[in-house]
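Morning. Coffee machine broken again, so started the prediction first thing and wrote up yesterday's gels while waiting. Chain of 309 residues, entered below exactly as on the submission form.
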Amino acid sequence: MTKITECLANSSDDCDDLMMKNFSKRMLKTQMFIGNFVEKRFVEPLNSYRDVVKIDADETDFIENVLAVKKKVKQELRANVLKNPVWVGITDPSMIGAPVGYNLWVILPVEVFGTYWFKVKTVEFLQNEVRLKLEVVRSLKSEKSYSEAVVNKETIDLKSYLENIPQVLKNNFLQFCNNHVTVSNVKETITFIFVLLGTLLAGGINLIHYLMEYFLKLLREISSLIKVSTPIFITFINLIGKTVYGLYALIASLWHGRRTQQPIYNAYYSVDPNSIAFQNSYGRSNYLNNNRAYRALPYGSARITPLDD
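Came back before lunch.
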């Protein structure tokens, strides 16, 4: 008869109890976590000592599973708590009198001190106690020391490797010379070098010829462009100059306003040649000839015409 058949044949309390045990073992069995042995404490309900193992704060998933199992166990054992009190070996920070943090109250197979890797072998359901059976896997300190030893070994290997580099290079060079430095190889190498140099020289000459030809064509096109664009540029500059000049002239005319034109009068001067001293008669005659228009008329400029009756 299987467990399911037994559960159906017995009462519902036995079925719930069996399901609770299966749930607890399924959640915690074979789980590994990091824990720290705190101390041994006396448990009054059990009248015995238990080892207190504090679960590391980083083991969040394991802590959630432990709390879920504790909640499930307390729900199933709540009805029988008065008849048969059961001690659950799981405490949380809210429990008064217990060490700080999440702790497991167990019986360790060996005496340990410090931080260790623990493995849950099973969940034990005794007459008056529910506790986890743990297995000590290894010390966390030994794991760190092992990693440090690996690092030290790698450092030593690197140092010896660096010391052996010159000797290794020397051996490789000698081996290369013995295997590859032959007459035929040297001849082929020299031939290849000369062919390579000739190819590079011919390619360089062709490249220079192409670049010079391209440069000459570029200069010709640039000169043609300058020749064509120069009149356009000059015309554009003149247009800008005339525009600016016209703008300033317009502003000046608006600023000063329109001036009234002054009347022009013909001035007649009478020059007395006798009053001017000349060195000779030739200078005097030249002056009179040149200033003939400025001499006074022998008659009056105004004529009076009598009116007929």
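The radius of gyration is 62 Å. Going to sketch it on the whiteboard this afternoon.
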